[in-house]
Amino acid sequence: MLSFLRRIFVDSWLGRIMAVLVFIAFIGWGAGDVLTDLFNGSHSETVATMGHHTLGREEFSAALQKELAATAQRMGENTPAKLSEELRQQVARAVLSRLVMRELVQEIAEEYGFVISDDLLRKTVFSLPYFHDSKGQFDRKLFDSRIQQAGMNEKKFLDIVKGELLSQAVLQPIAAGVQASEELVKRAFAYSYEQRQIARVEVPMAAFSADPLPAESELHRFYINHPWLFSVPEFRKVRVVLLSANTIGRSLDISETQLRQAYDANLAHYNRPESRNFVLFNTEDQQKAKILAEKWKAGTPLSEMKDLAKKEKISVVEMAEVTREQIPLAELSSSLFGADVNKVMGPLKTSGGWAVFVVNKTNPAVKISFEQARKELHDSQAAGQAVGLLPERVQKLQDALAGGNSFDQLPADLGAAALEGTLNREGMTVENRPAPLPVSESVKQALLKDIFSAHKGDHPSVAFGPENTYYAIEVEEVMPAHQLDFKTHLASIRQAWQEQSRRHKAEQEATSIFLAARAQDKGVMALSKLPYKAVISPAFTRSNPPADLASGLANVVFALKKGESTMQANRGGYEVITLLDVMAADPSQQKEAYTQLQQSLTEAQQNEIQQFFVQSLMDREKPKINNKAVEQILAGFSGHS
Q1: Which residues pair with 274 in a beta bridge?
Q2: Which residues does the UniProt record annotate as the domain PpiC (predicted)?
Q3: Using an 8 Å Cβ cutoff, are 51 and 106 in contact?
C-alpha cells in the first residue's frame, strides 16, 4: 500500500503525509498495548523536547513500529521481535533523530514568523488525490472515512499537513540555489546511457550426442561423486491463509456505474491506435541523404551513423509510439507505416527535405472493450477500498486464530485467500513444477522461509510479510530429505550421466570458438567457418540488457573493450560473446532523459544541503530526550514485554 501511495504522489513530500495515515493503521502484529490509544489526545509522556515543541510518545511509537517492520522485512524476518536488541536500538535512534529534526525545523519556522494560511492549508488538502472521488474532486465523506480508518481526527491530520508546509517554507529556500554541476550530470549520463552491441554464438548441449553408457560400476562412482543430482529435498504439506489488499480487493463488489465511469475516464488507455518506433535522418541535400542511406544499408552501426550526421549537420530524430496522425507530413506518414521493421528506407522526398529512416518496432492498435477491461477496472477500483479495510481484517484474522479457531472456522468475510499443497524450500512441487503461489517473489521467499521454520502441530498465527501481506501457516506433514536409491533410479542416473557427457562436449566446442574469437579483432564475426550462427543483439544499456542474457553477464559485457570476447555457461549449454560496438551516450539526442537525470541529481544534492542544515540545528538547539520513555516504548517490540 505504501508503494501504491508513492506512485500516486510521485514520491512528493505530500506522499509522506499520506504514509502517516497508512502506517498508523498497521498496529496488529506485536506491539502489545503500546499503540492502543494512538492519537486519542492522551500524551502520558513526552519523548523529546525542542524549544516549545514536543514529540509525543504515541507518535514516536507509530514511527518506530513502521521502521522496525520494514527493517525486519529487509532482513527476512516476519516480526521485529526477531531482530537483535542492538539493531532495534539503532533503528530507534534513527527514527528519533528524524522526528526531532522535523520538530526543530518547525520550531525555526515559527521563530522566523512563518505562518500557514487557512487558504493554503485547505488548497493543499483538497489537492490530495487520496481524498478524490472518481471525477477527481475532493470528497468530504471520503476524507472523513479515510482519516477515521487511520485512527486520526481532522485536527491531528491538519496539524501534520501544516507542519509539513512549515518545514517546506524553511527548507526549500535553502536548497533553491543548488544545482548539480554539468560535469557530474555528463559523467552520470555517460555511464547510465552508454549502449553496447554484442554478437552471440550459442553452443547448445542438444547438438551433441552422449558417449556410450559406461559399466554400472562407473555409473555408481558418478552417483557417489554427484550426490546433489540424486537427492530429494525436504517437502512439506501445508495450508496457508493469505490476507492483503489484493485478496480483499478481489472479494469486493464494485458497482457497474463505478466501473463504467472508470472505463470512460481511461478510454485513451483502452483504445490506442497503431503506432511506430523509428529513427529518422533528415537533410535538404539529396546527395547527403543518398550517401547516408547507402552507408546504413551496408551495415554501418547506428552510433557511427549519428556521428556522421552530426558532422554533416544532418538532423536525427528517435521517436517511440508515434501514431499515423501525429506525423504532419502525409508522404512520410504513409512510408513509415508501410515500411518493414529494421529495414533502411529512403532517401524519401518530403516537403521537409530528404528522409532516411528505420522502423525499429511496430505497435499494433489496442482496442479493449469494457467487458475485456472489467477485471482490471474492478481490481483498480477495489484497491483503494481494500487498502482502508486491511487493518480491520488483519485484526479480525488475529482474533479468530488467537481464539483457537482452525482455518476451517475462520470468518468467510475476511477477503483472505486459502492455499493448500506440498512444496520444497525452492517453492517446487513434487512434480518439479513451481507451486502456484499467487504472490510476488519477495512475498514468496518470506512465505517459504516461514513454512520451513514452522513445526508440525503448531497452532497458526498471523505473520507480517513484505508488501503489506499477512499470512498464517499450518504444517500438516513433513517429508524429510533423502538420497535416491541407486538401483531403483538407475534410469535417471544414466540420463544424468549422458547429459553431463553432452555438456562436456559443448564446453570443449565453445572453448575452441572462444579461443579463436579472442585471437581476432572482430571476435566471432571474423570466424568464417562457424558451425553455429552468430546473432547480433540490439544495442542495450546497463539497466536494460537482453532478457535472455545470463544473470551478471551484462556487467561482464560493459567491462569488455571493443572486439574482445567472453564465454559463459547457460542453462542449455554455452555461449561465446564478442563486443561489437560501444555507443557513447549523446545528450543532444536524448534531451528528455538528460534533463530528468539532471533534475534527479539536483534534488539529491538539495536534500543533502537540507540535511546538513537540520543537523546544524540539532547541534545548536541540543534537544532534550526522555531516555526512559524511549526504552519503555522499545521494550514493547522485543517480544518479551
Answers
A1: none
A2: 254-375
A3: no
Cis ω before 301 (30° cut-off from 0): no
Predicted TM-score (pTM) of the model is 0.49
Q: How far apart are CA 296 and CA 319, in angstroms?
A: 18
Helices (H), 271-337: 286-297, 302-311, 330-336
Helix then strand then coil, in percent of the chain rounded to 5, is 50, 20, 30
Q: Is 535 helix (H, G, I), strand (E, B) or coil?
A: strand
Cβ–Cβ contacts within 10 Å for residue 302, how many? 19
The residues facing 246 across adjacent strands are: none
What are 564-607's pLDDT values in tens digits?
A: 999 999 888 999 999 999 999 998 888 888 888 998 898 888 88
Closest CA to 355 of 397, 323, 309, 405: 309
Ramachandran category for residue 467: left, alpha or beta (phi over 0 → left; psi -120 to 50 → alpha):
left
Q: Which amino acid is at 191?
A: Y
Three cell numbers written together for 246: 489484493
- CA angle (640 as vertex; 636, 641 as ends), nearest 5: 45
**How large is the angle between the packed helices 154-175 and 591-621, nearest 10 degrees?**
110
Tell me which CATH code domain 274-364 carries: 3.10.50
301-345: pLDDT as tens digits: 888 888 888 888 898 888 888 888 888 788 888 999 999 999 999
What is the C-alpha to C-alpha distance for residues 521 and 121, in angstroms, rounded to an integer? 67
Cell of 543: 539497466
Burial of residue 319 (number of CB atoms within 10 Å: 0-12, 13-18, 19+): middle
Helix (H) or strand (E) holding 442: helix 441-451
